[in-house]
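A favour, since you know our structure tokens better than I do. Go ahead and set the record down below.
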Amino acid sequence: MEREREASESGHALPRVNFRPLLFCAFGIAFGIFLYCRIRFGGLLPSDFLLLLCFVLLAAVPLTKKRLLAMCLCLCVFAAAGVLGIHIYTENFLSGKREGSYTVEGTAVLVSVRDGYTEAELDGVLLDGESVQGKLAAVVAGEELRTGDRIVFFANVARNPLPAGGSPDAYDFVNDIRYRADAETYEEGEKGFHPLLFLNAKLFDTATEEMGGEEGYIAYALLTGNSRMVDSGFMTAVRRGGIAHIFAVSGLHIGILYAAVLLLCRPLRRWAALPAIALTTVYCALCGFAVSSLRALIMCVFLSINGLLGRKTDMINSVSLAAVGVLLFLPAQWLSVGFRLSFGACLGLALFSGSLSRLFKRAHLPQFLGGYLAASLSVQLFTFPVMMEAFGYFSVWGIALNLVVVPLLPLAFLTLLLCMFLSLVIPPAAGFFLMFPKGLFSALLFLFAAEDFGWVLTGFAFGAAGVVWLTGCVLCTERVRLRPLARCLAACFAVLLFSLCLVAENCLFGGAVIDVYESGDGMLALVRTEESSVLILDGDLSLADCKDFLSRHTGSIDAAVVLSEEQTRAVNIAAFTGAERVYCLREKEDGLRETDVIFGRAFAEGELAFAYETDDTLMLFVRGIAVKFEFGEVSALRADLCVEKGCGTLKYFLDRDIILLL
């Protein structure tokens, strides 16, 4: 406001967007990585350039040589750095040993104990005694393996592929997990001493032994962010309730710990930040430097340095610095859902929390309620498209549940930290110290068993609407200086374009639409017309894969078609997708009684006519078009097939008037 008053008195107009070099550098490197991934992994759309174009046009005003030069340098140089960084990372991911049988040796850095077996991520990997870069995901028999253990086994080692364009998850690529292997037996290797890995294992053992299975898994997840062992039903309810962030070591956890240490070290005055930074760094290392914790750590360091120098802290600069730091050294993190949620939440707070707080204050809401609603809505504005793209749904319960969870989390987290510390120091009294956390988590389990909080927005594809949503948010923030009329017009145009994108993505106006999705060794295809919706399953798939895919495109399906070699398993999975009918080529006993399972070489659903050529090849005939489903090793990309001219874009191979989906 002061700058605007000074500019008005001097007769000079303020720029539409303040020139923050760190923000422009962060935007440049993020867009460079984004563009490279879109081109290399598939899925580049014209709408991908909308946010960049809007940002550049706003930032270029007023048109001065110095401003334009500085802006172009920041954007172009760091975009090139982003492209170079992700290209080098991708080529390194593809390098290394070929698939084959090896003697594997590695140190478990992340362990998930299951019923009768253990999943582990191994670092410091040796294949036949030769050191290789990257990690190896191993599944080994037994439940005795712990974080920090060095193991040796002989197995067939496979390579993980690059992420496919239609897949929302790129976990292996992001975490540099280049290999995978299964082992029925293993031997303990020569152990080195890794203090933080040893402490991580002790936390797990203490939590599970003293608190019991489910409560112990929840406590371990809250402390370390490893929620893989928590009951899947409970985690689904937590995600749909919008509070899954409590089981990811996020900025909230780091902020709580940082603030608590600052308070304890208050007699040190301005130097209190040093022990706070040291302890939060150790805690981040204990949790494997998860990207959300790393972002929060960088922001805390930036805050501390500014405090020592007596400077004001700007949240946008802090978030931008953290983004540049993460993406320069870990460019693949851009594909991580955690990265986008973490930084999106912080940007939402920086852009909207102030204006929303003032709005709620003018509405005479209590200060606490107004502050919470402003923060929560600010976070939801920027994370909404990420949630829809990554998970296929958005929690309606989130705002209400977080109103209770967020204020209680500091108490629960710090209490659990203290109780766990005392339990490690005085093991005989561990049961007593962990009595309160156990009761708290038992109550949490009971609450989510009684109510699944399943009210979510789902059943539709988002597509280009996500970019339009973010662009509209940027135009509506007070950080962009627009006149009230221009802001109102921009908001109305964004709403109109957003609605049109949703309609174009989800509504059928004739013809057929085919959406293809790849998950590991399995493929899914959804064929939709105005009358029918048919799901095609091929390969090794799970019910979760099918439900995740369907949640992004449609609420229900009429039928499912099985191409999988494991026909009985696939039929059972298809039956639980809600399909009224399941079609198979060969008759086998499936154990189903309520689902109509139909066996035969040819069948029809509305205007869709299907015919099996072989066990794993299917022909579709619709309105004079022949489509051949023959999923192989070539990655399938999402695309639309519309029979009527001008209805869509065909992105598959055309061979002898037959469209091939490979």
